[in-house]
Amino acid sequence: MSRVIVLLSLFIIAAGCGGNLSNEERKALHNEMNERAIKKVSEESIFEKALDEGRSIVTALSSDSVELAGVVNECKCTVKRVNNIGEPELNDTQKSIWDAYKYVEASPSQLGDNVQKDGKDLLYSAPIIESDTLLGIWFISFSRKEIILSL
Question: DSSP readout, the chain?
Fold first, then answer.
């Protein structure tokens, strides 16, 4: 009699566990495991991705139909436009880039966009040129972590 009670108890416990996953839950679990897998990413690919992201954001901002707030929310980055008017509040890296762009201002054809390390972030900068005149610079700061996760 006690064996029957023990077996019946084990059967009820085993049936009550509900350890089976549905196909959707199983797929979601596998996707999450794949996303958390350790990936080896080169510095070059990180900088290339930041450069591509920066270029696409500047292109979007150049069109009149796109708002800055919408772009910032979508890209999880900070965007700053610096003009020639007054002394803008910039960190050391941004100041050195601003000074370099102003130094080469005499020949705007040499000005190009670039990506540099700025602490834990990546700083994309692109000149704003119109009629061979430097009007300002776009500074876009990306989280290094976000860039790596997007690769």
Answer: -HHHHHHHHHHHHHHHH--PPPHHHHHHHHHHHHHTS-----HHHHHHHHHHHHHHHHHHHHSTT--HHHHHHHHTEEEEEEESSS-----HHHHHHHHHHHHTTT-GGG---EEEEETTEEEEEEEEEETTEEEEEEEEEEEHHHHHHH-
Quote the domain boundaries for residue 124: 43-150
Domains contained in the chain, number: 1
Residue 18 lies in a domain: no
Could you list the pLDDT tens digit for every one of the 151 residues in the chain? 677 777 777 667 766 666 677 888 888 888 888 877 777 889 999 999 999 999 988 888 877 666 776 777 777 888 888 886 666 677 888 888 878 877 776 666 677 888 999 888 999 998 888 887 778 888 999 999 888 888 8
Q: The domain that contains 86 carries what CATH number? A: 3.30.450
Asked, for residue 29, whether it belongs to a domain, the answer is no
pTM of the full predicted structure? 0.69
